[in-house]
Design brief:
By secondary structure, this protein is α/β, with parallel strands linked by helices. The chain has nine helices and twelve strands. It folds into two domains: about 110 residues, Rossmann fold, CATH 3.40.50; about 120 residues, HUPs (Rossmann fold), CATH 3.40.50.620. The chain is elongated, with a radius of gyration of 19 Å.
């Protein structure tokens, strides 16, 4: 059986093409929401967060012969563990990595560590829009300027609750499904008088280009949380080429 590490739009795009060649597939996601992205596809699914030991058990239990890693670009530990277990079990590992967006905004700062980013943010005047996802929400809860920080998250109950559990008022929660157009980003930042946007470099799939254009038009500074570098084995940036190598 082929194991696809999913939970992203990339995984959906890959599977829609690959199931024409092979349907003996199980897709793992970290959340139930990730499973819902795969509705109507003829694949088995598993929703659980896995460390390395859990991955080893997963491979044995499902008799995995290949690993296709289409996890999020910032899911460093997931990819690292997947490569290690594939090597230990002597099975093939393939990685799809979305293309980087070759564009930078007029005003930006970059941080490799989230703690350094948080320290910088606490010193800022003006309203801030955070688009890092709900997992990073607790890191902001004790900031003295929390009332000026808005969080754009997926419109799911558990993510809204995480915000509320971390001292974030309803007026500071924007629960919407992205990615967003340039005009939608502009409208949202104008509505909340945003001066700073905190984001990841998530490529075109994650709406990075639209964020940059919107921020440039409004003179908003982008604050990037940099991606931790990892050297992938068998890395592909084109889904069609990846599939060609899988089925040959």
């Amino acid at each position: 059986m082929i194991w696809v590490i999913g939970g992203t739009k990339d995984s959906r795009d890959f599977l829609e093409k690959f199931i024409k060649y092979d349907k003996d597939i199980i897709v793992s996601t970290a959340t139930e929401y990730g499973v819902k992205l795969l509705e109507n596809l003829p694949v088995k699914t598993s929703s659980e967060k896995m460390d390395k030991e859990a991955m080893l058990r997963f491979i044995e239990r499902n008799k995995i012969t290949k690993v296709i890693d289409t996890s999020h670009p910032y899911a460093f530990e997931v990819s690292k563990n997947a490569m290690e277990v594939a090597e230990e079990k002597n099975i093939e590992y393939f990685r799809f990595e979305r293309e980087k967006v070759d564009i930078l905004p007029k005003r930006y700062k970059k941080f490799e560590e989230i703690k350094d980013l948080i320290e910088y943010v606490e010193k800022l005047d003006g309203n801030i829009l955070v688009t890092l996802g709900s997992n990073n929400v607790p890191l902001f809860k004790d900031l003295k300027n929390l009332s000026n920080i808005y969080f754009r998250i997926l419109s799911r109950w558990e993510m809204v609750k995480k915000c509320e559990d971390n001292n974030i008022l309803p007026k500071n929660i924007i629960a919407m499904q992205g990615p967003f157009t340039e005009n939608m980003n502009i409208a949202m930042m104008e509505q909340f008088n945003i001066k700073y946007l905190i984001t990841k470099k998530a490529g075109d799939t994650g709406g990075e280009r639209e964020k940059v254009h919107a921020c440039d038009k409004l003179d908003v500074e982008i604050i990037y949380l940099e991606k931790q570098e990892i050297i992938y084995k068998n890395c592909y940036k084109d889904i069609d080429i990846l599939i060609k190598n899988l089925v040959q």
